[in-house]
């Protein structure tokens, strides 16, 4: 009986040997597995084209080397002839000549460009293999059996070596040609003696010949299979590498384009920054020039006001009332000029700073034209200028704009035409204001026949403090801020456009396009009191923290015949509110007061003390922060005036507001 333990030890060894043999057979099968064409026909065509182009030089060199070797072996034949006079030298040389001619022809074919095609190259190379093999086998048949194997059949192995390695042929056609050559060799060995006096080789040599033939064929076909697998793998890798290189080049080109674009952007940003810097410098220079001009125009009337007041004081000390009255008039003119300059500079600064926000509404522009003409007719008459108003539309010209801004723009344009009117004998000075109704807008025209504006100065007229016909800086001709304020206001009004044409000696024509409004939403202007200067007897409560301004306003109101109670802070206002015996006709207050108080606190103190039901006195705010006051107080106040304000305008505002609520109730 066998030992079970020894069987267990033997079984693992047997299984290991079995699996090693299976792996060896699988490796052998893999080694001799013929390469398959690529599944995609386009890819296979591309591979064949690349394969033929890559190995064309090697195949051409192999063809030339084979030709030289065939020719060189003729010396080998001559040696046999010398050794044996019965050697068929001429027949052998004839065979070599035929092979040489065939190989020469094929070599010439390899020099053509079409040889780069892999299919054509294979056909050429296999034709060469066939011609050479046929020639060598023919020589083996006609040479003696004693030397045919050892001296000539060996040439067949040499042809096979060329076919398997040097020609870089594909494995499948190499396998088929090898099988065909083996069949031909076997056929010649056994069939040739039956129908020819020759034999391929001695029977005792044929076994050795076929042994070497089979081994050479197996090794050679395996090498061809390996080479084709390698060639196909390299082709795929090269193709992927080319794709990667192409993608890399595209990415590099994209990066270069992005770099160039970034460089362009960087240059543009640098240029923009430089331009913004230059603009800031120009704006700084313009602001400096503007402030210098404004300071100059403010210093002059301030200096005149100081001198006039000093001289008036000395005249009063001498009891020279006539001279004191003249100097008082001069001081008033200086104060008005200073106030006008200050208000103009302040308005322009607020407009350019974007503090002013237009209040858009729909209204009939005819009301604005009548107001402009009514306000400026006395001024035009004083300068000998005729002011006319015309409308070229029968229906109401409803516009969508800011009423106060539009009125201010027209007044500035009209007053500008009046200032620069050309008054000459036989040439009456005329300023025409008109409205033309168009399809989607209304065109407002201001035309004068004055001195005109030279074309080279058309841009400068909108700059601050620019007066083309006022080199002596005569304030009777204005300050040069009118058109600057017009330009700043129009930039804030949507869909408004100002154009002008001018000719030296013939006048100027300004055209302002204003968008149409809706008639159903048009507002009507409030009726003005018949006598806007009638303020005598009005009772006002005045709140002002600046004692100089408070004293001056109280004195002015007293001169106008008004009754005034004053307060400079909230404690004094609370004491005053407890002692009020009647409702004021008007409350006048500054917006910002001491200790963080505002006009809102004034209203909270005064209105509960004087209100009777729904009846409350109107409120007028006079402040240097007019826009802030409007936004903070809203509808709580009736009107806001910006400091400094002309006495005439203040008087008109007081008369208008007091006339709206002319009721006096005693406090019970």
Q: Give the overall shape.
A: rod-shaped
In whole angstroms, the N-to-C terminal distance is 145 Å
Q: Strand percentage, roughly?
A: 5-15%
- Helix fraction, binned, reads 55-70%
- The number of helical segments is 17
Q: Order of helices and strands, N to C?
A: HHHHHHHHHEHEEHEEHEEEEHEHEHEHEH
**Arithmetic mean pLDDT:** 78
Radius of gyration: 59 Å
Main beta-sheet annotation: 5 strands, mixed
State the low-pLDDT regions, or none.
Answer: 525-532, 663-668
Class from helix and strand fractions: alpha/beta
| Side-by-side strand order of the widest sheet | 2-4-5-7-6
According to DSSP, the number of beta strands is 13
Question: Which short descriptors sum up this protein?
Answer:
single chain; 668 residues; alpha/beta; 5-stranded mixed sheet; 5-stranded parallel sheet; 13 strands; rod-shaped; disordered C terminus
Provide a compact summary of the structure:
With 668 residues, the protein is of the alpha/beta class. It has helices at residues 4-31, 41-72, 74-83, 89-110, 118-142, 145-166, 171-195, 203-317, 321-353, 365-382, 403-419, 482-492, 547-559, 570-579, 599-610, 626-633, 647-660; strands at residues 361-364, 385-391, 398-401, 429-437, 441-448, 497-503, 507-515, 522-523, 539-543, 563-567, 586-589, 619-623, 639-642.
Layout of strands and helices, then pairs:
Layout: H1 4-31, H2 41-72, H3 74-83, H4 89-110, H5 118-142, H6 145-166, H7 171-195, H8 203-317, H9 321-353, E1 361-364, H10 365-382, E2 385-391, E3 398-401, H11 403-419, E4 429-437, E5 441-448, H12 482-492, E6 497-503, E7 507-515, E8 522-523, E9 539-543, H13 547-559, E10 563-567, H14 570-579, E11 586-589, H15 599-610, E12 619-623, H16 626-633, E13 639-642, H17 647-660
Parallel strand pairs: 1-8, 2-4, 9-10, 9-11, 11-12, 12-13
Antiparallel strand pairs: 1-3, 4-5, 5-7, 6-7
Helix pairs in contact: 2-4, 2-5, 3-4, 4-5, 5-6, 5-7, 6-8, 7-8, 8-9, 9-12, 10-11, 11-12, 14-15
């Amino acid at each position: 009986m066998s030992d079970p333990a020894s069987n267990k030890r033997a079984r693992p060894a047997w299984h290991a040997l079995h699996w090693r043999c299976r792996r060896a057979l699988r490796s052998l099968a893999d080694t001799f597995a013929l390469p398959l064409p690529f599944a995609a026909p386009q890819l296979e065509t591309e591979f064949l084209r690349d394969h033929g182009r890559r190995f064309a030089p090697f195949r051409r060199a192999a063809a030339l080397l084979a030709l030289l070797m065939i020719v060189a072996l003729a010396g080998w034949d001559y040696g046999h002839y010398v050794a044996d006079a019965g050697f068929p030298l001429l027949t052998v040389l004839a065979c070599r000549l035929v092979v040489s001619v065939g190989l020469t022809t094929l070599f010439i074919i390899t020099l053509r460009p079409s040889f780069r095609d892999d299919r054509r190259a294979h056909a050429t190379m296999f034709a060469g293999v066939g011609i050479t093999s046929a020639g060598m086998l023919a020589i083996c048949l006609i040479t003696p059996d004693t030397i045919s194997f050892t001296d000539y059949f060996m040439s067949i192995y040499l042809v096979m070596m060329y076919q398997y390695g040097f020609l870089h042929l594909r494995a499948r056609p190499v396998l088929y040609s090898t099988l065909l050559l083996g069949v031909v060799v076997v056929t010649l060995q056994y069939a040739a003696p039956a129908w020819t006096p020759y034999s391929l080789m001695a029977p005792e040599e044929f076994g050795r010949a076929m042994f070497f033939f089979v081994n050479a064929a197996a090794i050679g076909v395996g090498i061809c299979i390996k080479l084709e697998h390698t060639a196909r793998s390299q082709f795929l890798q090269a193709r992927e590498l080319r794709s990667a290189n192409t993608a890399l080049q595209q990415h590099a080109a994209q990066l270069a384009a992005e770099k160039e674009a970034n460089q362009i952007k960087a240059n543009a940003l640098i240029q923009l920054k430089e331009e913004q810097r230059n603009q800031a410098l120009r704006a700084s220079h313009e602001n400096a020039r503007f402030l210098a001009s404004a300071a100059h125009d403010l210093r002059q009337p301030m200096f005149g006001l100081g001198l006039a007041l000093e001289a008036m004081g000395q005249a009063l000390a001498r009891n020279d009332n006539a001279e004191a009255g003249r100097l008082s008039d001069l001081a008033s003119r200086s104060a008005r000029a200073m106030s006008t300059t200050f208000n103009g500079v302040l308005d322009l600064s607020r407009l350019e700073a974007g503090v002013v926000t237009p209040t858009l509404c729909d209204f009939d522009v005819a009301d604005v034209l009548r107001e402009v003409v009514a306000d400026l007719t006395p001024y035009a008459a004083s300068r000998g200028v005729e002011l006319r108003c015309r409308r070229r539309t029968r229906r109401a010209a409803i516009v969508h704009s800011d009423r106060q801004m539009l009125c201010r723009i027209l007044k500035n344009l009209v007053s500008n035409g009046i200032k620069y009117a050309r008054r000459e004998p036989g040439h009456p000075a005329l300023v025409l204001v008109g409205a033309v109704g168009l399809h989607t807008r209304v065109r407002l025209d201001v035309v004068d026949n004055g001195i005109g504006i030279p074309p080279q100065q058309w841009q400068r007229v909108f700059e601050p403090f620019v007066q083309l016909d006022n080199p002596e800086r005569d304030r009777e001709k204005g300050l040069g801020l009118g058109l600057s304020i017009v330009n700043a206001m129009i930039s804030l009004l949507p869909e408004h456009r100002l154009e002008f044409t001018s000719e030296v000696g013939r006048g100027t024509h300004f055209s302002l396009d204003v968008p149409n409004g809706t008639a159903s939403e048009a507002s009507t202007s409030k009726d003005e009191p018949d006598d806007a200067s009638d303020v005598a007897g009005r009772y006002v409560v005045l709140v002002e923290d600046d004692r100089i301004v408070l004293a001056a306003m109280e004195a002015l109101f007293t001169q106008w015949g008004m009754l005034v109670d004053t307060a400079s802070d909230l404690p004094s206002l609370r004491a005053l509110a407890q002692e009020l015996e009647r409702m004021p006709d008007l409350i006048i207050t500054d917006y910002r007061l001491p200790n963080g108080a505002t006009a809102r606190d004034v209203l909270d103190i005064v209105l509960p003390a004087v209100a009777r039901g729904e009846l409350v006195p109107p409120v007028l705010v006079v402040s240097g922060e007019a826009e802030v006051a409007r936004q903070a107080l809203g509808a709580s106040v009736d009107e806001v005036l910006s400091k400094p304000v002309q006495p005439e305008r203040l008087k008109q505002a007081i008369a208008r507001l007091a006339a709206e609520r002319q009721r006096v109730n005693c406090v019970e």
